[in-house]
Amino acid sequence: MESLSDLLKRMPISAMNEQAAAKSLEIAEDPLITKWRKAYPFIQDYDLKLNMNRFYQYVIEHNNCNHCPGLELCPNDYKGHYSLLTADFVQEKAMIYDQKVSCKKYITKQTQDAIHSRIHSFYVDDRALSVGYSAEEIMDRDVERIESFDKISSYIEITKEEGLQRNGLYLVGSFGTGKTFLMCYLLHELAKTGLTGAIIYMPDFSEDLKAMFGEPQKLKETIDLLKDTDLLIFDDIGAENMNPWLRDHVMGTILNYRMNRKPTFFTSNYELDALEKHFSFTSKDGEEEFKGQRIMDRIRPFVELVHVKGYNKRGNKKA
Description:
The chain is an alpha/beta fold. The protein contains 15 helices and 10 strands. It has helices at 4-9, 13-28, 31-39, 45-50, 52-66, 104-117, 127-130, 135-141, 146-162, 179-191, 202-211, 216-228, 244-258, 272-280, 289-296, and strands at 81-90, 93-102, 119-122, 168-172, 197-201, 231-235, 264-268, 281-282, 286-287, 303-307. The chain has a 6-stranded parallel sheet with strand order 3-5-6-7-4-10, sandwiched between helices. Helix 9 packs parallel to helix 10 and helix 12 (216-228) runs parallel beside helix 13. The chain is elongated and about 90 Å long.
């Protein structure tokens, strides 16, 4: 942004003097400055003239904010900030101070960025995590979801009041009823309190793990992150291509570490008994009932079952 002095320097001296006087008068009579001077009645015209460049920027930036084009297109010197002028009377002398203040849009973005930085997403659309929704909006989209939403809301409130819980939730329902959406809502709301979280879309995650065989350090870092994050969500569990290594050495390790420490959440089309059968069979080793039961012993006692009802929202903009 060009300052008043820079603007005037580009003019001939005679024109500059004339324009300077006109611009100074215009700024002095601006409603914003008139209001400001009422708050600091000890400010004289001389003080105003002496600090005219500050007042010029103050007016320009506030006008920019009143006609805000959006944070990305902010024309102020410091994007997302505006000038704030204050004054004091010190030893019989008026002192005027200016500082840069963050606007509401900038603060909102910083808050959202901080929330988003606490959440790791594995193969889940980040857009579902970057937007917060009101309770009314969620229930209006599908009234059949109210009962399950109430349980999730209660869980959020209990966590806010008591801190991180040891047990999580198991959301089960038909295709497209919004289970992932509800879990993203939970993550977003609790990330506001400072908790970290991760959500994993299991079908893609199970396939990508194969590529990590050749990257042991990356594999270790991924498993450690999932063990240590405050809130962990296995999304669409039961839809993955199960193999013994994924079941016993990845999920088993993560769940064994988290039980009685940190909550783990699940979304699935499978009821718990059906999920146990899924874990009991692998394409490599066939039926292994004991190992299916073993992994379920690390899930079933540590979740509350929540049935999610409603219509299939896949392909519907109202998710």
